[in-house]
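Glycosyl hydrolase family 38 C-terminal domain-containing protein, Streptomyces spinosisporus. Tokens?
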Amino acid sequence: MGFAPATARSRALSNGLVEVEVADDGTLDVTGEDGTVLYGVGRLVDGGDRGDSYNYAPPAADSLVSEPVHIAVDVLESGPLRSRLRVTRVYEWPAALSADRDVRADQAVRTPVEMLVEVRAGEPYVRVSTSFLNRCADHRLRFHVPLPEPVTGSASAGQFAVTERGLTAEGGWGEYPLPTYPASTFVSAGPATVLLDHCGEYEVVDDGSALALTLLRAIGSISVNIHPLRDEPAASEIPVPGAQELGMRIEHRFAVVPCAAGWQGADAVALAEEFRNDVLVARGTGPAGGPLPEDATGFRVDGRGVHVSGIRRVDDDAHGTGTGTEAGTEMRLVAMSDTGSTVRVTGPFTEATTVDLLGRPISPEQVRDGLELALGPWEIRTVVFR
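Tokens:
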């Protein structure tokens, strides 16, 4: 299957599946394969944070900084397999909170933030990397993805499940409810899905009009005795200077998928795995000019909404038989859907044995031309192929 080449212009990228244009304020206008457009992607919002390692807390009179004082756009690569732009935005962030911690200090620190924007041939999303040297304390920085219209909730992938949430959180026991939530491999709100390379924090803000991902919380204590959003301390007020991340380079990597059908329509489960796992390249050790090994057929898994959480070679000892002979390849499949999924596995095998989580066989069967399985909602199935 051929793909259109990735191309770059002075302020735009395209690969036939997704298009990106850099707006005058340095944010991105991203158009998806179905015509969905997300405007203003990558708006950075920096605010004060007088909280601790448990909870964010705003100063009494916060000062938000979202507009850069300088913007530069450079073309780094122009296809055909990959095209990249670098957007550099310079911000003036307050150096810290004031002594009483109710406002941000007047002293500002000029901070360049580099945003690497990339499209690759055949990928229906835009890759985004951010990087900056943090020289400010007591602040929270967020990456905003504005939405075409307000949403009433979000969905985020965690451990073997996708959790749907509303715009509010539960509170109680003297603690103000903060609707910031974790996401492991992706988070979605309406037509915007963001693929993640590590677990992060997000919140749907502005009355459902934007998705905000936390890039940095720079704080100074494990707990603070006086917390605006909590009646009692969470722990002892022990300073943790390293939590301010001063002098540290803060880097993040994610991808943005515009799709009107949401995370399921975008097949975010599969895209998240593709994004996280780049092609593995290994240098050969054989002599130069020697014959190449025979082509080999590996495993292939087809199934919408199916996550392959693990694949490994196992022997009989792993399943308690004690023979020590090779048993096959163990694969763990997860249906990331509340309606179930159908999955088809093909490869070099003629027998498939469903096993329990300890590897003990449940139901072996002989197969030809692959194995097709019907997985129930959120079902985890482990199969050994021989």
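The first strand starts at residue 7 and ends at 8.
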